[in-house]
Specification:
Immunoglobulin-like, 3-stranded antiparallel beta sheet, 1 helix, 5% helix, rod-shaped
Length: 177
């Protein structure tokens, strides 16, 4: 039988956790006088061990927009917000799922390059592995339709204004007169 003054071994394995920050608390039960001998805490290759006194670890990453519409050649800036404000490492990496459709620079500036849809992702670099995404749609640059008629407005020397609804060929004839 184990009592409050005998050494004991505790083995625990927790798997299937979401890839984010988790807290492990190990304490001595009331009435026990022996200390704890901690042998190991194993973390897989994607995780990190953070000392409990460490402050400023990124806990939240958000973008100012979840969707964005651009035309070819236009640009807009996505803004990443990191919490808490006292996070020590606020550096992020921006990526585009297809930089031929839309590219993104280190400051979140997105530029539409050709028609299509892409996902822009921002990821923390502090080991918290947090990401946020925005879906970007790039459309062709809109151009006005060419009509078959035009209004010709003439202002004569006595300040009278005359307007004529003419075909494009009549406008061409007037311009070449």
């Amino acid at each position: 039988m184990h009592g409050p003054t005998q050494n004991q071994t505790l083995i625990a394995e927790v798997t299937g956790l979401e890839n984010k920050r988790h807290k492990v608390i190990i304490r001595i039960a009331e009435g026990y006088t022996k200390g704890i001998n901690l042998d190991a805490i194993d973390i897989d290759a994607n995780g990190i061990l953070i000392h409990p006194d460490t402050e400023g670890i990124v806990e939240s990453l958000k973008l100012n927009k979840e969707t964005l519409e651009l035309t070819i050649g236009s640009s807009e800036t996505l803004v990443a917000t990191i919490e808490p404000e006292n996070a020590i490492n606020k550096n992020v990496i921006w990526t585009s799922s297809d930089s031929e459709i839309a590219s993104v620079d280190d400051n979140g500036n997105v530029i539409g390059k050709k028609a299509g849809k892409v996902t822009i992702t921002v990821e923390t670099t502090d080991g918290s592995n947090l990401t946020a995404t925005a879906e970007v749609t790039v459309k062709e640059t809109e151009t006005g339709e060419i009509g078959t008629r035009a209004i010709l407005r003439l202002t004569v020397t006595n300040k009278d204004i005359h307007e004529y609804d003419l075909s494009l060929s009549e406008i061409d004839q007037f311009m070449n007169w």
